[in-house]
Amino acid sequence: MNQGGPVEVLIVGCGVAGAAVALELASRGVPVTVLDRDQPGTGATGASAGMLCPQYETPDPGPAFRFGVESRALWPEFARRVEVLAGWPLGLRADGMLVANRTPQEEEQARGMLDWQRQAGLGGEILSPAEARKIHPHLHPDVPSWCWLPHEGQVDAQRLAVALADAVRGSGARLLVTREATSLWVEGERVRGVHLADGSALEAASVVVAAGAWAPLIRDLPSLLPVRPVRGQILRLRPPSPSPWPLVADHQGCYLVPRENGTLLVGSTMEEVGYDEGVTDEGRARLAEGAASLLPPLEQARLVERWAGLRPMTPDTLPILGPDPRLRGLHYATGYGRNGILFAPLAARAVADLLLKDTTPVAWEPFSLARFF
């Protein structure tokens, strides 16, 4: 067996979860090597819509909501760091979101949500159709009211996915692409590194598993990692005319994300199909119908492309962060589900703190792997 030279921290996965941890550690002067099984931009990060929407995505004022709001506040700083290191912009925007209330029950749900979000210091209001069309003139006229969330935002995930790899290299970390970690290298009660698909191994003082939906496939993990892939299909449409910037969504999980090039992303399905990343006609039809039900002009939109990604979901939909309770030197940054891009900056701070100091001011305890034991 060929063994690479030892490194201080080895991160498995260069999606947004792993890359953010690498950038955080590198900024603290820690030697880092990042492995990725694919080329930059081909994983779940690049397949996502890039929404930064904790108010829309989290159904209650629990730990995921608080974590998401705090992480969203870190995104301008994080984006600037990536842009400086990578040398190109990420399309970060905070133009708000309109959510359709199609029934009295949905409006009541939205009002209740706004009540506890206001208690957390966040803005939002219920708008009449006329008020909502002042923000977005193409909204469906039959929707009786809209929930306006002015602080929600987005980043161009396709740019981000490639820029992260450039930023990791620019930070001084080492990036090894098309190098798949197949198993942990364990001696006694401590991790020593990883074994690779080519038969070699890399030694490290610490290992961070940030491999998304593929994390459970790494052999010799000390515990069953409760992460499963959930497929999400996305369409890219070119509308008949450019769309205004606010995000538009409904309560069923359909959302519309405008891009600077005049296209618009439509997401997303939630499909339990294992590791199948294929797209389907059924998914395309469902997304196209949902898009037109929010913006009728999209019935005439041209389909530019479509793709699917695999979200790493846990049973309780919360991420898995921090040290493994059974194996020294092993840490996790995975299971981010629908909020991988949103959670990444704050999760990276927490994981780096715990790896280097065994403590962090970030409220990470609800996301420990120990909750499943």
Treating each run of at least 4 consecutive H or I residues as one helix, how many helices?
9
- Please give the radius of gyration in angstroms: 21 Å
CATH class category name of the largest domain: Alpha Beta
> Percent of residues in beta strands?
25-35%
Give the terminus-to-terminus CA distance.
35 Å
Reported for the largest beta sheet, the result is: 8 strands, mixed
- CATH homology superfamily of the largest domain: FAD/NAD(P)-binding domain
Percent helix: 25-40%
Which architecture of the largest domain does the CATH hierarchy give at level 2? Answer: 3-Layer(bba) Sandwich
H/E series: EHEHEHHEHEHEEHEEEEEEEEHEEEH
Q: What would your notes on this structure say?
A:
By secondary structure, the chain is α/β, with parallel strands linked by helices. It has three domains: 3-55 and 158-227 and 315-372, FAD/NAD(P)-binding domain (3-Layer(bba) Sandwich); 97-150, no CATH class; 228-312, D-Amino Acid Oxidase, subunit A, domain 2 (D-Amino Acid Oxidase, Chain A, domain 2). Helices cover 30% and strands 28% of the residues. The chain contains nine helices and 18 strands. The protein has helices at residues 16-27, 44-47, 54-57, 63-86, 104-119, 129-135, 157-170, 281-294, 340-357, and strands at 3-12, 32-36, 51-52, 97-101, 125-127, 145-149, 153-154, 174-177, 181-187, 190-196, 201-209, 228-238, 247-250, 255-258, 264-267, 302-313, 320-323, 330-334. Strands 1, 2, 8, 9, 10, 11, 17 and 18 form an eight-stranded mixed sheet that branches. An eight-stranded mixed sheet has the order 5-6-4-13-14-15-12-16, sandwiched between helices. Helix 1 runs parallel beside helix 7 (157-170) and helix 1 (16-27) crosses helix 9. The mean pLDDT is 95.
